[in-house]
User: Fold these one by one.
Assistant:
Number 1:
Amino acid sequence: MDRIKKGNYKAVFTDIDGTLLNTSHQVPKASKERIRQLDGQGIPFVLVSARMPKGMIGIRDEIGVRAPMVCYSGALVVDADGRAMASSVLDEKETKALCMYIKQEEPEVSLNLYYEDSWRVEDKKEYWVKQEMDITQIEAEEIPFTDEGFSRKTHKILCMGEADQIDRLEKNLVQEFPEIRIYKSKDTYLEVMPMAASKSAAIRILEDIFSVQREEIIAFGDGHNDIDMLQYAGLGVAMGNASVEVKEAADIVTKRNDEEGLRYILDRAF
């Protein structure tokens, strides 16, 4: 913990799932109180997630802050009122090519298309879709994945399936589409986005707005898609429940999300 420079930090960026939320998908009461204290002191507390905007705003309102949000792991940045500040998309041609390839290579993998607050699927009764709807409390939009279904821009393609299916798909997509950003957010989830989209790129946009320097930022995360953010921030904090790869990329490792690891560091940094 000697890497912490108490009183040096002016902004906090945090992942949601596995970081801010515990395994019951709740923000502990003491953590909410600490975050509100920081907000009252003028310290921006920014949610950074692979989720869509409406999958984040309820959490932001619950913790009681009013700040921009980084959605789709950086593909979309919205201001406190939900207006787009920055956006990187896959165009219709890229979306169609990726989806057709995925359907051909791994037909049992769940295919989900996201743009702004739209979530498109072929079958809402599918196991993976139902599970995601339960977690996010958001209803998917059922659309046949034909030419018409692909005729929209896309911020993110989410592929959900068994770990071995996702492993195979990741290797194949990386080889076939080197110009696209592809990574696992967990063993059963594969995120496909524009190469320009990243959490660290989104932070760079907001640090100018907040008038803070890179070394004045704390970032918290637990997943592979948090690594660039943890490496960029002045203090990158991996959760105790993070993978070895994420922990190695961070400056320090805190307690697990079920032990309020985020609050533990906030108490020592501010």
Number 2:
Amino acid sequence: MKQYVKVLLLLLIPLLLVASYSMWGGNWWLEKTDFSELKSVIDSWVRPGGEAMEVGADSTFAVAEVVTDSVDSVCTAEVEPAPMDTANQKILFFGDSMLEGLSRRLCDYAMENGHELTSVIWYSSTSQTWAECDTLEYFIKKTSPSFMVVCLCSNELFVRDLTERDKFIGRIVSKMGDVPFVWISPPNWKEDTGINDLIIKHVGEDRYFDSRHLELRRGRDRVHPTFDAAADWMDSVAVWMSGDSTRHPIRMAVPLQQRPRKFKQILLLPPE
């Protein structure tokens, strides 16, 4: 009986996510997507006792691919100035739940500057989650990004196993290969135990946006920034991404007009 209760609860999670999206305003719809190649993630969703949760081309309840259509209001490393890459980018944005607010505003910048955005939110994920499976490789292959943005490790601010986290972050950077990227640090609400220093160690200050100094209004959980605060956060990131202190500047002109947001967003269930 307990197994059936767990399954019912898991089925309710995507419905709650969809309900939260509906509160953001605008129109949305779900699309099926083929996850048949994503073997390690599917294997990781096997229940104790061998009962597997169905995930694949004929399922939309476990992983929702959402296209939003809504309207809203708009580092200090010593590096050699790099010329701005003025090409239209295919941006893959991946990480934890901090992406919820950031993705909306990044979409505004993408549409203003001719970029294409795909956002992958893996709820409650950590560096270990992304490092120990082929999820990132899958979405890199699926989207063929020319630029990547990471926002990860908010769930690891107070960890003690830094030696292991060091390895996980290194693996994630290795998975991204030669694709240019930036890593947006967690928006600390308390001092961390060293995870940000590990990120800097692997990506360098010219690919690391330091969010620790930002004063952001938080939601009810006192952890996640409100949508308005997340928009301000993304505005700060965008200025840095187009500046000469980042390793690979891209075009990030400020959005000048409101328009319906159109971007692809994939929601992944929390890992067990």
Number 3:
Amino acid sequence: MIENIRLAFQGIWAHKMRSFLTMLGIIIGIASIISIVSTIKGTNEQIKKNLIGEGDNVVQIKLKEGGGDYQIEYEGLPQGVPVLNESRKEEILEIPEVVSASFYRMRDYADGIYYQDKSMDGGKVLGIDSDYLDTCGYQLVRGRGFNQKEYVNFKKVALLDETAANSFFEKGEETMGKALILGKDTKHLDKDIELCRTTNERISDQAAQLLIENQIPFTRSFIKIPFFLREKYRGAHQFYVIHTNRNRYSQARHTLDHMDSVFRRRLIVSNY
């Protein structure tokens, strides 16, 4: 044993340069491995911080399109994206690091949310399940949460965050039992009403031309058709909608009766 060690040292001493290069290669190799492992570990930690933030352990996973959230109610479920249901939720909960999970739907109301003469632009409304509040760590300041009957029957009840509550109500004002209007301006509900809609732009143009000829004021817009209703409307993606003043509705309705019968049958006229 001692003789082997002595011979090894003699070999190293006899070939100093080769021994030095061999040791240098080993040192560089070990240092490289340590650096790579440290870099990967640091990158993983940074990714976790970017996903869940400092001191927070809640991760929100959203389906995006371009720069905004994907509007699944209008565009439908993209190919390859799995449907999220209770069985999928159970699979997520089986992941060792997952403590709680919740599914929710979110919709933006660019037209605003209203309470009496007060409004809040750009509000968001979330449809949540029974685990959402606990999963996100939210606590109720006033009132109560949703009960099981409200979930099952899809009751029109809501919880307000601090921003919404301060926008609509004075400090200390009772909020229970109050009604909010989503996406409609209550100040104009008695003025402009929907006259008609159609999925055909040409028919909408003809209706608008008749209104112009009879000097009836109107506005035009379009709304997207939810994907689950498109089959009903022959695959159309949107409605062309015409609104008119409530006081001119009868005259406008009578004007549309003069349209070509073929076009008139494809026009959905509102009844008031």
